[in-house]
Structure formats: C-alpha cells, structure tokens
C-alpha cells in the first residue's frame, strides 16, 4: 500500500514539475518567402531602350498579337518577342523589344501598343527589325504603380528584380492563417475577325482590344478608351469605372465583352469615348475570359487556388441576340478552361493540359472533335486556318480544317 | 535539435545492431500510453502506441500518436529505448524521430479554395522514464522528456493581404513553420 501511495505521489510530483517547467520552453514561428528588391532605371533610360534588340529566348510566354506574318509575343514583365512566322512550320525569333512591366499588346496600323507598368507605349513596327517608340501616354494605368508591395516613384521604372529567399521570425500567435484571398485577373485568348491586315489579332485573355479608332484597355476596375485615329499619337479619350473586377476584354462588331470574376458585361460603343453597359450575365466568383460571335457569347469559367477561387470548371454558352438580356443556352463541363477562340464553327479551348477542338455549329450541342495533349495550355488564337497556342512549355502552332488540327511547330520556352 | 536527435537515434541503432549479434531472445512488444504535453501554448492531451520488438534491455518500434498540442497532428515515428539494471523500478532512456502529419481541424479547417495548405514536418523527442513489471508479460511505464513537433503550412500572398510586406510578389507562396517545444509526460503499459 505504501508503495502504491509512493507511486501516486511520484506521478503527481512529475506532472506538477512538467507543467511548471513548461514555462521554460518557447514555441517559435518563422515565415519564409522570396523577397523581391527592385532594380530601377529612369523613365528616359527605359524609353531610350524601347527598340528592336537582338532576339532572346522565350522564357515566360504571355499574351500575343498576330499581324500578317509576324507574331508579337509578350515576355511577361520584360517585353515583346518579334517572331517571323512567314513559314508557320518554322517560325524565326527575329528580335526582342524590351519593355519593362509589359503584360498586354495590341496593334493597329503598324503601331504596337504595349503597357509599361503605368504607361502606354506606341511603337512603330513598320519594320519589325527596327521598332521605334513613337509616343507614350503617362500614368494611364495608375494601379500599376504598386508592384510587389512597392510604390514606384514618378520618373522611375522597375527593370528587374533581385530575388532572395527571406526567413524571419514571427510571433506564434501571428502565425495562424489569414485568408486574404480575393480573385485577381487572369486574362487572354482570341479575338474574332476584325483581322484586316492593319489590326492585330489578340486573344481572349487580352486586356487590350482595338475597335475602329479606339484602343480599349481594361484594368481590374476601369475601362480606358484611347483614341488611336492617329495610331502613332494615341490620346486618352475616356476613362470609366467598371464596378467589377475586370479581367479580359473582347471586341466584336460594335460591342465590347468584358470578362470579370463575377460575370460577363456587354458594352456598346455608340459613344466610343464612353461605352455604355447594355447587358450582363452574372456567375459565381471565377475567372472567365469571354468571346462572342453574332448570336452567342462563350464564357469559360475556371477555379484555382488563389485568384479565381470557386469550384466550377465549365463553359457557359449565352444567347446574346438580345444583348440587354443574355440567356443561358447550355453549360459544358470542362477540366480547367482558360483561353478560347472561335473561327467559323471551329471552337478551340485551352482546357488544363489539353487543347480541345469542338464543332460549335449548334451552340446547344457543341461536340468535342479532337483533344491535343499540351501541358498547361493558357491561350489560343484560331485565325485563318492557323492556331497559335501558348502553353507552359512553349508556343505551339497548328493548322486546322474540319475540326482537326495538325502540328506545325513549337517555339520551346527556355527555363529562366 | 534535429541533428542531436538524429545522432542519438543513430547511436541507439548502432547499439541495437551490436546487441542483435548476441543471441538474445527477440519478442514482440506493444507500448501504449496516454499523457500530457506541456509547453508555452497550452497543456494538451496525447495518446500514443508503439509496436515493435524487444530484446534484452532494448526495444525499438514504430509509433503513432495523436498530438493535440496547438494544432492537431499525427506523428509517426521510430522509437528506440533502453532500460538499465534489474531493480523493480528500472530506469530507461528513449528517443523518437519521425514525421509529424498535420491534419485539418477546427483551427485549420480544410480550405474551401486551397487558400492555404498544411504540410508535414519533423517530429522528435527524447527523455527518461521508469518501468516496472506488473505481471509476467505486462509492465507499467512512465516517461518524461522533451518533445518537438514542426507544423508547416503555406499560403499565397494575395492582392489584398494586409500583411504583405514590400518585396513580396502577389503570387509568392509563403512558407510558415511553427516549432512547438513541449515537455511530454506519458504513462502506459507494455506487453
């Protein structure tokens, strides 16, 4: 009995000591991420460097614009690759135009419009091998002065980033998760046949669209109308709030189709300086580029971890014959759709790790005709029998007819 | 700390190897116990079971635990221990090393949109104890020692994160690591 009592006392003593000593131990927490430190140049230095330079390997393909025999391919945040596509089976990377902060491109009358963070550049590409900066509109995209947590000073441009892994201690209590998640823009696919030789064809993920004598450029919260009647001397003509988180813009006839995280918006351009919203179609919070033809709009919706959220991956086909009241025709289940493009009745969709080709003769009965496996497809432009597909590992080209595509070439991305 | 535990484990393993060469009877051993984990954050309940073998004064096995300290997790670990002497209450040393499998809980619910994710981390510990036979095949065992578990989770910095410092890309994936250090007091049975 005494031994049992001794054991109980020993146990009680040990528990007491253990709890008492807990104060000697400290829990700690660390937070690790890549820290970006900007490398600056002056605005004058950057403008002086905007010209055709020697070709560079493509390492992060962004949006693109097609004009005649050339592909102008955005290198995300760096500039524009000039690719001679005279022979689509063997495209030639001819030059690189350095434009820091560049994400979007559009072309009219041999003038390439490209964003440089807050500014818009108008670059003469009459001779692609000798591009010349003609004009700029300063501070047209004021939101983009905030980069990676920095506020960029007037007169300076971030031309590169020094990246380092950074770890620092945080209070354990601060280490609990905080969900700051809201969707952010994705953007770009293809645009239909405004494609005379003077206007470049952009994709559905694009945030630039040329319609008549105006370049429309969207930011998450604004729609900018830039008068480009004199293409080499663009003028900011109008700016309006969109009251939605806009991701993409697609022009068709006199309409602008804006894709947002919460729905599709249709603007008419009767007053081109201030387009008027005449219709909308709302959906759950998702990323959604949109394209359109005479009677229908095609909206791909995809979810992801950080920006789009949501849980749906699908294409909604909407009847837009009455543009003030778009009506759902049918929803098609997809894997993870992004950019899309339509040429005649041929509909192409970047869907996860595939390019899918559909017969869209009947909007209520769109039929899958071919699936081409390509890793992480992002955007596609189907135009005049050629399909241009940007994906994780390169820019692919296919010829197509009767809903069947044939491989032509690939510009492989070089790892950074 | 990790290195020290790993070295201790290595020394134990080497000793086991040497002992195995002696012709000692090897038998199955299960040790199951409950206890408390006491650290800066809280005092927390734990339960663990270790299945393995024993021979002479050594035992080794694979352990699984439910660990509620700060964040729920399931450590899976290799446990090596040795007792000393032949007294009724025999002292022992033990060392653990393994992986801490973090699980979603009320505090860290399964994310709806993958806005964060939990990642596995290191688990380890070492300490002393006492064991005594309570029947022919059963022993009572009580241990006290240091216990460490690592809780890892990652999240993307997003556009609206209020705590995003300058220099962090909005797409950056931020790795968070919590280092939990506790005293572990566990009592149980071996059979």
Arithmetic mean of pLDDT of chain A: 85
Largest interface: A-B, 44 and 49 residues
Helix-strand category of chain A = mainly beta
Note the quaternary state here. Answer: heterodimer
- Proportion of strand residues of chain B: over 45%
What structural category characterises the helix and strand content of chain B? mainly beta
- Secondary structure tally, helices of chain A: 2
Average pLDDT score of chain B: 83
Rg of chain B, alpha carbons:
20 Å
Cα-atom radius of gyration of chain A:
26 Å
Spatial shape of chain B: elongated
N to C succession of SSEs of chain B: HEEEEEEEEE
Give the strand order of the largest sheet of chain A, numbering strands 1, 2, ... along the chain.
2-6-5-4-3-14
Neighbour order of strands in the largest sheet of chain B:
1-2-3-4-5-7-8-9
Helix proportion range of chain B: 10-25%
Number of beta strands of chain B: 9
Taking the sheet with the most strands of chain A, its summary is: 6 strands, antiparallel
Query: Helix fraction of chain A?
Result: under 10%
Report how far apart the termini of chain A are. 75 Å
Structural summary, described in words:
The complex is a heterodimer of chains A (416) and B (191). Chain A has 416 residues and is mainly beta. Chain A contains two helices and 34 strands. Chain A has helices spanning 2-21, 43-49, and strands at 28-42, 53-54, 61-67, 70-75, 79-84, 92-98, 105-108, 111-116, 119-124, 132-137, 146-147, 150-151, 156-170, 201-202, 208-211, 214-218, 222-227, 235-241, 246-252, 255-260, 263-268, 276-282, 290-292, 296-301, 314-319, 327-333, 337-343, 346-351, 354-359, 367-373, 377-383, 386-391, 394-401, 404-412. Chain A has a six-stranded antiparallel β-sheet, with no helix packed on it. In chain A, strand 9 (119-124) and strand 10 form a beta hairpin. The termini of chain A are far apart. The relative contact order of chain A is 0.12. The model of chain A is unreliable at 174-197 (pLDDT under 50). Chain B has 191 residues and is mainly β. Chain B is built from one helix and nine strands. In chain B, a hairpin with a 5-residue loop joins strand 3 (58-67) and strand 4 (73-83). Chain B is elongated. Classes of the chains: A mainly beta (416), B mainly beta (191). Chains A and B meet through helix 1 and strand 1 of A and strand 1, strand 8 and strand 9 of B.
